[in-house]
Automatic annotation (TrEMBL):
Catalyzes the condensation of iminoaspartate with dihydroxyacetone phosphate to form quinolinate. It is found in: Cytoplasm. Binds 1 [4Fe-4S] cluster per subunit. Coiled coil: none annotated. This is Quinolinate synthase. Pathway: Cofactor biosynthesis; NAD(+) biosynthesis; quinolinate from iminoaspartate: step 1/1. Its cofactor is [4Fe-4S] cluster. Iminosuccinate binds at H27, S44, Y122, V123, N124, S143, H237, P238, E239, T254. One of its GO terms (cellular component) is cytosol. The keyword Hydrolase does not apply. It catalyses: iminosuccinate + dihydroxyacetone phosphate = quinolinate + phosphate + 2 H2O + H(+). [4Fe-4S] cluster binds at C91, C211, C301.
Length: 349
């Protein structure tokens, strides 16, 4: 077993050896021990765009979760290879929509609404779901462009099926002025549409999925902050529930949270509702402000955290030895359709 110091030396040595032939993107939710070695850090949108622009890189070691590595593979050239330091770094939200469930839901909805629906999927989804969406004229979205993409989608069709995060879908549609009573929920387990009013009123069909990290920020947490710190502003990610977003002062993507706090006046007070590693980093980087996690028990993304220094070092060592492990390779036919969905987003961003 190597010491952390030896692991850091190993990572630095391989990075130096491979130079621009190696690119390491790191999501903001990654641990400090990993993100310190990232060539670029970003939210899911920025990392997707950056991966597409790294023409020199033969190898991309993705410090993030599986769907992000798949996206990088889809957007890069055939001779560029993407690796994930730990194959167990998945996303519980992406796992909430599989392709069989999606095809069943689509059949049901097409029978009900005929050709009036366009599918949109959060990038937090499998390549197969992105391919399904691409094939059916739809696009991907991220938390930073969801509103623009939803607006675009309504220029195409009357109704939207939004996968797999009901909260991002609901919060974004609500901000665009669509009332909650025009949103239905599709339950993929029960295979039923949850909706009370007349069907023709439905504008948005939300897939019943959620992020297990952001769901941990609750109404009671906001109420507690309001009691304990009357001056404090509450800022949350739109993967939080509608009720929590409603009670907060601001909601926004990972990048907009980072920027809002960076630009806030010294002495200002913030409770942040997003992933623990990012909240800790924002606290360190803004010593002139009083910042806490909206949920005092913090909220780590356990799968993001599976990428740790030992896994990164192991991944780089295997690469340097010419026996790379954990290749992420999306099937060609899936990748072609998934790319259509991603490209429809990237040209509008
Ligand atoms: P963004 O990076 O788009 O803000 O998404 C947050 C997230 O949950 C990533 O898994
Ligand atoms: Fe998935 Fe949520 Fe973790 Fe992001 S934070 S990877 S959406 S489980």
């Amino acid at each position: 077993k190597m010491s952390p110091a030896d692991l850091r030396l190993l990572v630095s040595r391989v990075k130096k050896e491979l130079g621009s032939r190696l690119f390491i993107p790191g999501h903001h939710y990654q641990k400090d021990e990993v993100i310190q070695f990232a060539d670029a850090r970003g939210d899911s949108l920025k990392l997707a765009q950056l991966s597409a622009s790294q023409q020199d890189a033969e190898s991309i070691v993705f410090c993030g979760v599986h769907f992000m590595a798949e996206t990088a593979d889809i957007l890069t050239q055939a001779d560029q290879h993407v690796y994930l330091p730990d194959m167990r770094a998945g996303c519980s939200m992406a796992d909430m929509a599989n392709i069989q469930q999606t095809e069943k839901a689509w059949q049901y909805l097409m029978d009900m609404f005929e050709d009036t629906i366009l599918p949109l999927t959060y990038v937090n989804s499998t390549a197969a779901i992105k391919a399904f969406v691409g094939k059916n004229g739809g696009a991907t979205v991220t938390s930073s462009n969801a509103a623009d993409m939803l607006n675009w989608a309504f220029t195409q069709k009357e109704r939207i099926l939004f996968l797999p995060d009901q909260h991002l879908g609901r919060n974004t549609a609500y901000d665009l002025g669509i009332p909650l009573d025009q949103m239905a929920v599709w339950d993929p387990i029960m295979e039923e549409l949850l909706y009370k009013g007349p069907l023709h009123n439905i504008k948005v069909i939300l897939w019943k999925g959620h992020c297990s990290v952001h769901e941990n920020f609750r109404v009671t947490n906001v109420e507690q902050v309001r009691r304990d710190y009357p001056e404090m502003k509450v800022i949350v990610h739109p993967e939080c529930s509608r009720e929590v977003v409603e009670l907060s002062d601001i909601s926004g993507s990972t990048n907009s949270i980072i920027n809002a706090i960076k630009q806030a006046p010294p002495g200002s007070q913030w409770a942040i509702g997003t992933e623990m590693n990012l909240v800790k980093r924002i606290i360190q980087e803004n010593p002139d402000k009083h910042i806490i996690s909206l949920n005092p028990r913090m909220c780590p993304c356990l799968t993001m955290n599976r990428i740790d220094l030992p896994h990164l070092a192991w991944s780089l060592e295997s690469l340097a030895e010419g026996q790379p492990q954990n290749l992420i390779q999306v099937d060609r036919s899936v990748a072609t359709d998934a790319k259509k969905a991603l490209d429809r987003m990237l040209v509008r961003t």
